[in-house]
Amino acid sequence: MAPLNSWEVIEPANYFKSFVDQSSRPDGRDWNTARPISVRVGSIGTAEGSATVRLGNTTIVCGVKAELCRPSLEHPTRGFVVPNVELYPCCSSTFKAGPPGEKAISTSQFLQRLLQNNEIIDYEQLCVVPNKWAWCLYCDILCLDYDGNLIDSSLLSLVAALLHLSLPTVNIDPDTEALSLSQKHTQKLTIKERPMSTTFAVYNSDIQLLDPSAADEAECGGEVSVVLMESGDVCSIRKTGGRQVGVLLPSAVSSGKVQGFISTAQSRLSGIHETLKEALELHASANRKEP
Amino acid sequence: MSIEQSVQLNFLSRADGSAYYCLGNTSVVASVTGPTSGRVSARHHNKCNLEVQFCPCNGQPTIEERDVECIIGECIEEILASHLHPRATILLNIQELQSEHEHQLLTASLNGAVMALMDAGVQMQGLLAAVTCCYTHAGVVIVEPTALELQESKSSLVFVLESDTANVVACYQQGRLSVAEYTAVLNRAIEAAKEVFQFYRSEMLKRYSSHGCIDGQNEADYDYDPL
User: In this protein, which residues make up the domain named Exoribonuclease phosphorolytic (chain B) (predicted)?
Assistant: First the structure.
């Protein structure tokens, strides 16, 4: 008998279906089980804010680099936050070197819009001198190991890194208007809300898989990401179309299903927030020990 | 209130199918070429490749336009009977002419693209209608809002719905809503999508009745409820 592995390679769809038929997935989880999450903040010493998130095998590092720049003319009292997702070939063979691919672009754009449209960050707090100086936070979200569910992991790493962020105090010489930065990074950014995402991969109109791995994503049509605030309010629902052949609209979901997604996401919310809080407390207590 | 929309099919002479679609103050031209031969590197052995090009009305395409291309491509691939044309490429070009706001631009681009594909006679498994809705602070759902209405609203959403069962193919939301509010917007979007499907139907009837294929007088004979 040929090894199980060659079945997976020759007939991936059939292989995957045999698991789904047994209410399971190739990695052993059932449809509604998420992978364990681990969060660590302050993992990069040279960045102003940083976090590492692991979601099963998916590993994301987010580093926030703060630079002083000129505010835009439209909003002279607001700073900038620029999330940028990088998917290098080392994290998965599906990504190629060169300019950012579709997935990286759409994830970056999604995060950017999420921050801008929900008053999550106080952009005014990032302004140092109106019309002259404001902080620009470059949030580089780097995928080290890609095993599915980029949206959830990158959003969690971004929020954790922004919570960890501390900016140096800016001193302005009143006569020369020259800037000097204090060596101590003390100024914390106020994060008004902590959005958390829960992603489902749509296998067909009846079966949706929570927290899809890369193998699940490859066999499923579209994905639904439900982003909720801590209060349980729907912050954003993002549903992408799928890319499948020959099956009539496999990834379209009925409006009733959408409610199911929201309630599943709400039930997961407290666990994720707990993990994040623990990571922040752990970092804070470690800092107290070695001043 | 009905959605303000108009279309001119077969607008471009060199494309296999095209549509000049206006939605409110937004207008786009969508053109379809194919199924044709494409880049060898982009060929699939079991399905056709869909290439979406989105051109903004000024400047070079940026990362935002690439994102719009991704969204449109993912949605259109969902309805395309792509297994019928293995190794082929379908090119979809969308040119923005003017736009009210980014949501309406996405909505108009998608609807225009679907109409251009219909005009080109590309086989599809269903139709899509995109609808922009916004939810005001007063609790009113506005379909196809203007930029001003959007600015004053609490949340804005783009739904892409499918013709057969009114299922949600794609959804993009900005601004927070409670679950009940979300449901209200979704239900309103489904109503609005019906109107868009009816519009597709009447426009296609017009197009083919002028060619003498379908007698426009007997429209009732071909009556078909899209939802």
Answer: 6-122
What CA–CA distance (Å, rounded) separates B19 from B17?
7
Cα of first residue to Cα of last residue in chain A, in angstroms, is: 62
Q: Which residues of A touch B76 (CB under 8 A)?
A: 241
Nearest chain A residue to B46 by CA distance is A245
- Give the distance from residue B124's alpha carbon to the nearest chain A alpha carbon, in angstroms: 10
We report the CATH number of the domain holding residue A237 as 3.30.230.70
Q: What is the mean pLDDT of chain A?
A: 87
Task: Examine residue A259 and state whether it is found in any structural domain, yes or no.
Answer: yes
Of the pLDDT bands very low, low, confident and very high (cuts 50, 70, 90), residue A247 is very low
Average pLDDT in chain B: 88
Which of the residues B80, B150, B155, B173 would you substitute to probe the A interface, choosing the one with the greatest number of A C-beta atoms within 10 Å? B173
Q: What is the pLDDT, as a whole number, of residue A100?
A: 87
Burial of B81 (0-12, 13-18, 19+ CB in 10 A): middle
- Asked whether residue A94 is assigned to any structural domain, the reply reads yes
Strands (E), A74-195: 80-87, 127-129, 133-145, 166-172, 179-188
| In a domain? residue A21 | no
- β strands within A33-155, DSSP E: 37-41, 49-55, 58-69, 80-87, 127-129, 133-145
Q: Between A109, A205, A234, which is nearest B67 by CB? A: A109
Of 3.40.50.10800, 1.10.10.10, 3.30.230.70, 3.40.50.720, which CATH number belongs to B5-222? 3.30.230.70
Interface predicted TM-score of the whole assembly (ipTM), two decimals: 0.79
Closest CA to A185 of A280, A18, A65, A84: A65
Q: Where are the domains of chain B?
A: 5-222
Where residue B225 falls among pLDDT bands split at 50, 70, 90? low
Chain A hits for B166, CB-CB cut-off 8 Å, are 254-255
Q: Which of A237, A244, A267 to mutate to test the interface with B (most CBs of B within 10 A)?
A: A237
A178 compared with B133, residue with greater pLDDT? B133
- The confidence score (pLDDT) of residue B209 equals 81
Task: Please tell me the least confidently modeled range out of B60-64, B108-112, B206-210.
Answer: B206-210
Domain limits for position A171: 28-289
A22-61 residues touching B, CB cutoff 8 A: none
A245 touches chain B (CB under 8 A): yes
A14 inside domain: no
Structural domain count, chain A? 1
Cβ of B149 under 8 Å from any chain A Cβ? no
